[in-house]
Amino acid sequence: MAENSSTIITAQQHIMREQKRFPGASGEFSFLLSGITLATKMIQAQVRKAGLTDVLGEHGEINVQGEIQQKLDVISNEALVHCLSSRESIGVLASEENEEPMLVHKGSDEAKYAVVFDPLDGSSNIDVNVSVGTTFSILRKPDDVAMDNPEQWVLQPGSKQVAAGYVVYGSSTILVYSAGNGVHGFTLDPAVGAYFLSHPNMTMPDQGKYYSVNEAYRDGFPARYGDYIDRLRSGVLGRKYASRYIGSMVADFHRTLLKGGVFLYPPTEDNKEGKLRLLYEANPVAFLAEQAGGTAIDGEKRILDIEPTSIHQRTPLIVGSRVELADFESFAQTN
Ligand code: AHM
Ligand code: MG
């Protein structure tokens, strides 16, 4: 907990303050977000004891992405669905782990938000005790969309997100979110069970010193990505970059947000559209990056401008500091 008690602000207090900016705010938005904070506390409790209980290893099912689900993927998904289903303001839940978006509170006039999430991103890292995370994105139901058409609730460009964020289950558990008024980070005090404001008004440094990419796929990247990595290493940006790659996007992005630099998941030979999902992964980090003064593109255009056509669609992602992204964009135009 923060040492000076007069400055202690919990995530709940912060969210309540934020929601005053929403016209006609009635408390529903803060109640909605409290569903996310509660679920992520439940998830972190499982992640923290993963080695002690029988929760490691494969669940045995193949999810919609064709991947074997980990038990913790399933547990995390259930925690979010359970906690969010009881929030009346939510009409649709779309999870990376579920084939179809779920309608909840069907027909209720109060249900006006959709919550889109990846319950446990980077889950291949669970068994080796490396950081994993949860990402989330909140959208308002468009006026012209039928109540019972959940897909249309969520097929909106990322620029329409009302709020987005992630929780990284690392050496500490940190919640980072934005409701369109800056980016704020909260550290979970496990003894108290509350998130406390630890990183107010986060801004991404204009330039960093790391690039973050799975270089094993380099031969399968379009040539300009490999050439760009060479530029970063060569010193033309005023420094010779080092590399860091965890393989959990949330953790790699969290470092990039705090320290600057660039994270890339380009198209590869096996994944022509890249691996990351637009709605669950790219949109929330793009929203946060822009709110923090950084940039996020798919190699050509702004991530937040992409009009999604299917809920599980993938996109290449390049996200990071202003200097590195400006260089990529000017270099890519001529290559
Ligand atoms: P997941 O949602 O199935 O966990 O996959 C997404 C993860 C990201 O966290 C990470 O950036 C990427 O997969 C790593 O992929 P790779 O092992 O191909 O580098
Ligand atoms: Mg996942």
Structure characterization notes:
By secondary structure, the chain is an alpha+beta fold. The protein is built from 8 helices and 15 strands. It has 2 domains: 11-201, Fructose-1,6-Bisphosphatase, subunit A, domain 1 (Fructose-1,6-Bisphosphatase, Chain A, domain 1, 2-Layer Sandwich), CATH 3.30.540.10; 210-333, D-Maltodextrin-Binding Protein, domain 2, CATH 3.40.190.80. The protein has helices at residues 11-19, 28-48, 71-85, 150-154, 223-234, 249-259, 278-291, 322-333; strands at residues 58-62, 68-70, 90-95, 102-103, 113-121, 132-140, 163-169, 173-178, 184-189, 194-199, 210-212, 242-243, 262-265, 295-297, 317-320. A hairpin with a 6-residue loop joins strand 3 and strand 4. Helix 1 (11-19) packs antiparallel against helix 2, helix 2 (28-48) packs antiparallel against helix 3 and helix 5 crosses helix 8 (322-333). The longest helix is centred in the N-terminal third of the chain and has 21 residues, at 28-48. The N and C termini lie far apart (50 Å). The structure holds 2,5-anhydro-1,6-di-O-phosphono-D-mannitol and magnesium ion. Residues 67, 118, 121-123, 214, 247-249, 265, 275 line the site of 2,5-anhydro-1,6-di-O-phosphono-D-mannitol.
